[in-house]
Design goal:
The complex is a heterodimer.
Chain A (H helix, E strand, L loop, with lengths): L2 H10 L3 H20 L3 H7 L3 H4 L4 H6 L5 H20 L5 H4 L4 H35 L6 H32 L2 H20 L3 H6 L1 H11 L7 H28 L3
Helix pairs in contact in A: 1-8, 2-8, 6-9, 6-10, 8-9, 8-13, 9-10, 9-12, 9-13, 12-13
Chain B lengths: L1 H13 L2 H23 L14 H32 L4 H4 L4 H35 L7 H28 L3 H21 L1 H4 L6 H5 L10 H28 L3
Helix pairs in contact in B: 1-5, 2-3, 2-5, 3-5, 3-6, 3-7, 5-6, 6-10
Classes of the chains: A mainly alpha, B mainly alpha.
Chain lengths: 254, 248
Amino acid sequence: MYPLTRLYARKIYRQKLIYIFFACFFTASFFYAFLISTPQMEEMLNINIGIVGRKNFPEFMMRFYVGTVGILFNVFLLTLFICEEDKNKMLYQPLLHGENRSRMIRSKIYVAASMSMIFVLLTAIINYTTAFMRWGYEIFEQTALIRTVMKYLLSGIYMSVITLGIIALCIYTRNAWKTIFFVIIYLLIDQFIYSSNITFLQKMWLGYYLNLWTFTYEYQKMPFSELLIGIFIMILYGIVFFQICLYRTKKIDF
Amino acid sequence: MIIKLLNIQFARLKRQKILYLFFVVMAVIIISNALQCAGSSEDNGMRYYAGGKFPTMCMQSYIDIVGTLFLSFISAVLICGEKASGMLRQPLLNGVSKKQLLIAKTVSIFTVALIFFLFVVIVSIVTGFVLWGSHIFDNAQEYLLQILLLTFPQTTMVLFLVLLSLYMSNISSMMCASLIILLVNNLFSQFFGSYISFIDFMYYLYVFSGYNGMELTSKMIVLGIAVNSITGIVLVYGISRRTNSMIM
């Protein structure tokens, strides 16, 4: 691993908030697994344990991270990682030690994108662990397992692309609250587009495919064509965001 | 002096685009809630909120996560942002005491919270009136009581956010901490309501708005007001201690 990448990785994983967040997520997953089985809880939370429990539990819990909560958590971490460093004049420090801008931003991007993927996989591990503690081997039904793992991987790709978008925003705005502001607007538009019937716009929209996989095809197999188009659109967005980051970094006036 | 400081804070707040974003976000949420209620069938849960219960539903959407997150953002910008940029020190150079400055900031955040909440109530009633006519006033007594009661946990929430901002070093970590606290509180309110009702003021945001069909009994009202008042006093003490010891 390149030394700068290792340095950035160490910096991001030193954030205590990450550990607090995932400890809370584990607690949430544990409570959901063990406490939703009672009829009072089912009625109160408006869920059916027959559907969301056992083999479907990890997929049910996926929605609590992937999407709004995960994106907000990522944007707060990334603004700490980029905007705050920029503000404290730490962003250009590597340049004083002989690194070039492109290598510096590439290191940041690799660390941030892999961090997003790792977080999604971590939620998968947490959810499978709590589900196993509650239902034992019942959760490992082959079809459901393959489908759920695939959905987690696809969500990981989505979160990595969103991370690239957030990095591009951070570099453009160079301001924490402006970045958060635009991400909130993105989340709003995302909800609007998913619930609208404008097919063309939906097909071109990055977040639409995640909503499709998470909500429309919840506990169901995803059609292969939708899967391919979704991955293609996400990769396309990813490349565009990556290029924007590189281009903009070259122009930054530190 | 406090009035002058308040004017400065309000002038600063008026320039915050996030304030206007809140109005747009909440208007979109309220209209989309209204359309979902109007278009839902009899056996759908959303139908329950159509008509007289619509303002209650909108208040629940507000207190759930949106309102608190925006309020924490405002506190973060007004306190953490200024602290990080060294702007918090500026008024102190003109003879203002730390206490006066913090009072002005707390009052301005509280005013924003009040405006946010009134906006939700008024827009939900107007939207409901357009869709269901005078039926929107069928449960007026119920939601007026909820509005009144919700001012208690919201006031405490403002104090809590001010205290949190005083401890956080920048906007991002403040927002991250708020998000975690909100999610944990939501979780505990769902599963351990009977235990945390004695200590957690945020639980009453849910109870007083009838979240998830929670029943509003007179015992809960008294307990809620007591818990919020005691927590409020503790938070004020915490703010004053932190203000005195803080290096700006």
